[in-house]
Amino acid sequence: MIDTQLIRRQFPILDREVHGKPLVYFDNTATSQTPMRVVEEINRMYTRHHANVHRGVHCMSVEATDLVENARRKVCAFINAPSPEEIVFTRGTTEGLNLVAASYCRLLSPGDEIILTEMEHHSNIVPWQLAAQQYGLVIKVVPILADGSLDMEAFRGLFTDRTRLVSVAHASNVLGTVNPVAEIAAYAHARGCVVVVDGAQAVPHFKVDVQAIGADFYAFSGHKMYGPTGVGVLYGRRDLLEKMPPYQGGGEMIGHVSFQGTTFADLPYKFEAGTPDYTAIPALTTAIEFIESLGIENIEQHEQMLYDLALRRLKEEIPGFRLFGEAPGKCPVVSFLVGNAHHYDTGMLLDHLGIAVRTGHHCAQPLMAALGVEGTVRASFAVYNTPEEVDVFVNALKRVAQMLN
Ligand code: 7TS
Fold this sequence. Notes:
Blueprint: H1 4-8, E1 17-18, E2 21-22, E3 24-25, H2 36-48, H3 59-78, E4 87-90, H4 93-104, E5 113-117, H5 126-135, E6 138-142, H6 152-157, E7 163-169, H7 181-189, E8 194-198, H8 210-213, E9 217-221, E10 232-236, H9 238-243, E11 254-258, E12 261-264, H10 281-294, H11 296-317, E13 321-324, E14 333-338, H12 343-352, E15 355-356, E16 358-360, H13 365-371, E17 376-380, H14 387-404
Parallel strand pairs: 3-15, 5-6, 5-7, 7-8, 8-9
Antiparallel strand pairs: 1-2, 4-10, 9-10, 11-12, 13-14, 14-17, 16-17
Helix pairs in contact: 2-10, 3-10, 4-5, 11-14, 12-14
The chain binds ligand 7TS.
């Protein structure tokens, strides 16, 4: 069972006020708040182990290196990856997806096809467009159904003998839809295609097992899972990472450098050019420990309870409430509009009542086009949110809706 009172003590930021009102933080899909133990771990890195990694013989450098490599093993176990060498530290999901698009696509030929979906975040669209322009690739898009789930029949219909890769969100940051990634991977693999999964919105909310999914690549961000900003993870299958050219050149990623030619380091360092964020990476270990201390299943259950409560009350009590995304088994994300009220006005008035929600296109403009809207208001929940906060939110939205309609 989740004891939110106990949990909230680890998040002093949740005690602050905004505009003179107690903060209700419902923008967890954009970034989650950070427990003190993660903040303390970053502090400890600066005050105890601040030395560049992988290069020093001196004690502090060895300690920092051990902490970074320990984090790699922790992440590996967290997503059940086969080996730590297949865990590449990045700046975030965006960099992980750019890495795969820029590097893997160099192995493809003009006319080869990539399948994306209509519900992708821009970071799982634009890197592929850049690669498609550079290498003459063709992008095809899976549409969504009315409930916000993927049209799987259309997905299967997009495959041709030129299809090489599928890249799909595990969970949508707008609709909350959890996509059938294992089914997608099985279908794609049977046709010789590689599968990339954007796990930014999955990892904080439910158990992810990259081997059970059959993902060839899996990208996510630390800052959405109670961890530090500026650190992300890319899992990549060893044989694919080995074939791929480096993404960036620099220190750390080389075997030997001469002006006659350079050889590259073994995995995962081939893909980690330059100094990594070694002060933040160990704090990712602490974030995973925080999740494990609560139990990801308990987190999922608690967030689902908040989602169900919010949705029931919003549907009953807010005239003109319109929900986007009703697929079964979705993540705790409520994207909505109220009557004719503009999403921005709704968000701004909620902010003045202390409630932080997101408004706009949520970096998913093609999805907004498919839904026929310019933007939505989005409330999203984390483990430290409470039913009382849902009450405050629904009551505030009632007032806002009256003012705007
Ligand atoms: N993929 C998905 C599904 C996301 O939701 C996001 C961020 C990203 C990729 C990019 O992650 P980053 O850490 O590299 O920036 N989503 C959001 C959002 O919904 N509101 O702000 C950021």
